[in-house]
Specification:
Length: 157
């Protein structure tokens, strides 16, 4: 593998907070993590991202409120699920969203798909995106709501 970890996320939601802490922790632990700024100037972005996914041992999928609004994130997720069926470990992280909202496309995920379905160009992709969200949300991962609750319970005892 060229990369230990590929991380897909909505930059709008996590780049300046959770994402910066996550990438700093991965760097501290010498985990080879693909970052989109590694794409060479002049390269086509989506093919480079899809190749990086293929070259990664693990994909970390950070689901957040704006994730499903990003066509890039959804396309990356489809590729990640394809790789998961062949060789790749996929770890979902539900950051301030419910796993059931991801699985069933409720809440902000439902709103995003209402927007996507308005576009005739995107309609052929919507079914693949929905399937990928369902499959990813069925994998064992981390739920920030539960983790925060457990931390609260532990610290108060």
């Amino acid at each position: 593998y060229k990369h230990d970890v590929f991380v897909t996320f909505s930059g709008e939601d996590i780049r300046e907070n959770f994402g910066s802490y996550l990438f700093a922790a991965l760097f501290r632990e010498s985990v080879k993590t693909f970052r989109d700024e590694q794409i060479r100037r002049g390269d086509e972005i989506m093919p480079a991202l899809l190749q990086a996914i293929e070259e990664s041992k693990i994909s970390l999928v950070i689901f957040s409120k704006r994730f499903a609004f990003s066509r890039w994130c959804l396309e990356e997720l489809v590729k990640i699920i394809e790789c998961n069926k062949l060789y790749q470990t996929v770890i979902p992280v539900f950051y301030k969203v419910l796993p059931s909202d991801v699985r069933n496309q409720h809440g902000s995920f439902g709103e995003a798909f209402l927007e996507h379905e308005k576009s005739h160009d995107l309609r052929p992709k919507v079914g693949r995106w929905r399937d990928a969200l369902r499959e990813a949300s069925d994998l064992a991962g981390w739920d920030s709501n539960v983790t925060r609750l457990l931390r609260h319970i532990i610290n108060n005892e």
